[in-house]
Amino acid sequence: MKIRKENSKDRSEVENVTREAFWNVYRPGCVEHLVVHNFRSSPAFVRDLSLVVEAEDSKNIIAHILYCKTTIQMDSGGHKDLLMLGPISVLPKYQHQGIGSALIEHSMQKAKKLGYGAIALTGNPDFYHRFGFSSGSGFSLFYPGMSRTEEASFFMVAELSEGYLANAVGTIVEPQAYSVSDDAVHEFDAKFPHKVKETRPGQLG
Q1: Rounded to an integer, what distance in angstroms lies between the CA atom of residue 137 and that of residue 153?
Q2: CB within 8 A of 26, min separation 6: which ones?
Q3: In the chain, what are the domain boundaries?
């Protein structure tokens, strides 16, 4: 397994890997491949942390991880910089083999070397706790649009530099590239081979 930085020639393959990884998982079809596409033209995109995994027996890309820059809108009126992780994609036939975990660990180490102080994400706590992520509310950081009295267990944060988030009480600013319309997804998805959208148990409402 080889982990390397994504280059411009990888873009279509990475978007297809993302589409395959998320198709019908959280909703019929998916939006994540468009999110990845949009981030490449966003000033928030961190190119040094857009990493791919190549299969051992070929140079085919089987996984990808993306990070972007964002901020905390602090209650005190200021801002504090941090990273946001995701999407992370692994082709279905390579899932549950430790590839995603290795990619997360490698990328977090690289982010720390690059001088970033903390990472936020939205995801499954049972999976991300093993990498040092914990509830954002434990850092007095909150997800936009939700009451602070409501526990948003899907919103998690990890410090890369101990104490970086001390006294940084506030709300995470979610980068605009994460928001995509149904019409934009439909138009973008038409560029890919046809896949059947299915409603499955466990999808988001």
Answers
A1: 9
A2: 203, 204
A3: 2-189
pTM: 0.96
Q: Phi first, then psi: give them for residue 186, nearest 5 degrees.
A: -60, -45
Q: What is the dihedral of CA 173, 64, 100, 107, to 10 degrees?
A: -60
The pLDDT of residue 1:
84
Q: What is the pLDDT of residue 56?
A: 87
Q: Which CATH superfamily is domain 2-189 in?
A: Gcn5-related N-acetyltransferase (GNAT) (3.40.630.30)
Residue type, 203: Q
Q: d(Cα 142, Cα 73) in Å, to the nearest integer?
A: 10
CA distance 60 to 36: 18
172/74 Cα distance (integer angstroms): 9
- List per-block mean pLDDT (blocks of 10 residues) for the chain, which spans 205 residues: 95 98 97 98 97 93 98 96 98 97 98 98 96 97 94 96 96 96 97 96 83
For residues 139 and 159, what is the distance between their CA atoms, to the nearest angstrom?
A: 10
Report angle CA 130, 134, 138 to the nearest 5 degrees. Answer: 160
Check: CB of residue 36 under 8 Å from CB of residue 64: yes
The pLDDT, as a whole number, for residue 202 is 85
CB 32 within 8 A of CB 24: no
Among candidate residues 16, 18, 115, the one with its CA nearest the CA of residue 66? 18
